[in-house]
Amino acid sequence: MLVNGKEVKPDLVKISDTRYHLILGHKSYRINILSKTSDKELAVEVNGNKYDINVKDRYDLLLHDLGMDAALSAKADFIKAPMPGLVVNILVEEGETVAKDTPLIILEAMKMENVLKATAPGVVDKIQVKTKDAVEKNQVLISFK
Q: Are 16 and 5 in contact (CB under 8 A)?
């Protein structure tokens, strides 16, 4: 596991749905999850101190390395496939109004399911793929009005 770019080997024990005990580098930490804004953004309390946490998995790091994270964070007129894959499920319909971070499509790539989310609020104009379609990297999947 990487924390701030450094390899660490934590000893983590789940106490309840929101409470954990962590031993890292010969130090003990009491962790309480205060809120979960999204799958990758948390507010936590560690030994009485509050922190906002942004979790990045290996796919987030890959998108960053490819320079695609900046493009995804800006207002987009469309959603493109970040890598080749298979459309597993389409979660929205044409004409539907979506908020930022609304799940749009589930794309299977490298034997993992990836949920592609709206990068900004908008209205779905056209869905350019169907379930079970194979897609290529940078192929437009959904366009917005």
A: no
Which tens digit of pLDDT belongs to each residue from 31-78?
999 987 767 788 899 999 999 888 888 887 787 777 766 555 555 688
Q: Kindly report the backbone phi and psi dihedral angles of residue 15, in degrees, each rounded to the nearest multiple of 5, phi listed first.
A: -95, -45
- Burial letters for 52-84: b for 16+ Cβ neighbours within 10 Å, e otherwise? eeeeeeeeeeebeeeebeeebeeebeebbbbbe
Tokens encoding 93: 């319909």
Report domain 74-144's class. mainly beta
In this prediction, residue 72 carries a pLDDT of: 54
- Domain residue limits, the chain: 2-54, 74-144
Cα distance between residue 108 and residue 106, in whole Å: 7
Q: Give the span between the Cα atoms of 38 and 80, in whole angstroms.
A: 21
Q: 31 - beta bridge partners?
A: 20, 46
pTM above 0.70, yes or no: no
